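Handout, tutorial session.
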Amino acid sequence: MSRISLALSGSRHYALGLMSGTSHDGISAALVRIDGGAPQPVKLLGFRTYPYSGALRGALLRASSGAALEAVELAQLNFRLGARLGRAALALLRAVAFPARRLSFIGSHGHTVAHQPPGSAGRGRPLAGATLQIGEPAVIAAMTGVAVVADFRPMDVALGGQGAPLVPAVHRMLFGDARRGRVVQNIGGIANATYLPPRTTPAPMVAFDTGPGVMLIDALAARLTNGKQRMDRDGRLAARGRVVPALLEWLMRHPYLRKKPPKTTGRETFGAAYLERVVARARRDAVSDYDLAATLTAFSAASIADAVRRFIIARGPADEVVVTGGGARNPTLMRMLKAELGDIPLIRAALLGVDGDALEAVAFAILGYLALRGLPGNVPAATGARLPAVLGKLTLPPSGLAD
């Protein structure tokens, strides 16, 4: 039987984190060793990304785009994704020759198909929050014989929070510095920032979604290549075009960018429907495909830099911006972001000893650890929740599977 060893004595534990993000490109799986109380409490032992099949990716895109699904369709997709997550976990364990029975637990984020932060429905009427992540943890536990902690977002939403971002506590653990103020800027489908003030100052942390990361860029690349490319690899499409100032100015007037944190966003705001509006505007203004790619890339860079200036610098020193996520591998985007940030140095997470590609999967292993220790995983200053809270739900495997 899989042991919940966090309930036992000892401070060293092995865990596996699973993450499926807004880019819809695949599952990130990370094996970590967690040493509670150690100077460097988390060590990455293995990391892989397992791409989705075209059929599964299409089903997830449809589910998260607001398309109406029958209840049975969503239930089937939940179990189907659970099986894919379970296979990813087992594949990573085989790749690094690590037996499942040595794992204390698996932390799985699953895949967000609906996310509605608390807010206003108009005319002052309150809008209750709701969030839904699929990727059935019971299937993962049954396949691996390992306990699974999943469903991390609902408790924060139940407490009036945005349910995101959930990684600031992890960022503080991995990137906090006594003297330097750092912005940890993840650029996935959606871009999100965590401000870590110097530990010697009383300034509070803040974290929020800055706006689009590579979501619009990826969608345009797929559109321009008739689905042959899922992303603008190495920023090549954008590099062939020129930024159109008038179009960029129009994009930067999006109301989300002016909204104060705490705030989150996603495909419902910057997904397919919004891209159609942007393409229509570009066609009206006779903007070429390559120029549109360059301008959308500039939009991601400019919106990130605007968020740093608008919502972070006033709170304390921002000595460095640490960039993580798939967008960090786009040299055109990085060049534009560096130009937008001016004198603020832009550095890769690897320079600080952290694999930026693995970071989100690692984060959900750590959040699972906090949950099983009975420790809060959210940061109310970041999410807007009324209280710190233990996040996640525990699913135990049947007896005998792990052995």
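The second record follows below. Compare its token runs with those of the first.
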Amino acid sequence: MFTGIIEHLVMVNKLSTSPNGAELFLALGDFYDDLVIGESISVNGVCLTVKTISGNVVSFDVSGETLKKTTLGTLRSREKVNVERALRIGDRLGGHFVTGHADGIGTIKEKKQAAGQCHITFSTEKRFTDMLIEKGSVAIDGISLTNFDIKEFTFSVALIPHTLASTTLGYKKAGDRINIEIDLMGKWIKKLLENNFSRGKSTITREKLFEQGFS
């Protein structure tokens, strides 16, 4: 589990592909000197498990399914990626709960500067925008962001200068692809609604939603 608050931008050392997956090597620098094999790290919003540690270079296995559902398979040597270590009990939760299980891929449709911020519009599948709400949370390449202006196939976010300077969205441009993870609450509510309507009638009431913690 992660928060979507990116800790560092690190460089891709190498991506070695095979018929069934890939092995990703990242140069993590010296700021993760207590890293251990088996630890989970979010890489551009995808939860990966540390496989080997050699100096400051760390490797991860990437499954074929992950390569199909995310942008990791297109990473190039010396490209920078967002990384975040797993949340520890007692840590401050500055973003929102992010699992690192990306739902799919979107594309930057437009990127434009506004007063003191940058607006980015993403295009993606309707099944993803259907689970977004105005001012709700969404993870883009592992970055916890607030979405607005949701349409059938697009949604937008506003980035402050710090986010631009400390994440991959600072240098990405229109046409670039990104990983999307929908907020867990949106996915659970959609599943709940689908299950009820598939039985021929909805049994959801305001009272039942309150009982489940939705307000």
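Points raised in discussion: The helical segments are 64-69, 126-129, 161-166, 184-198, 206-211.
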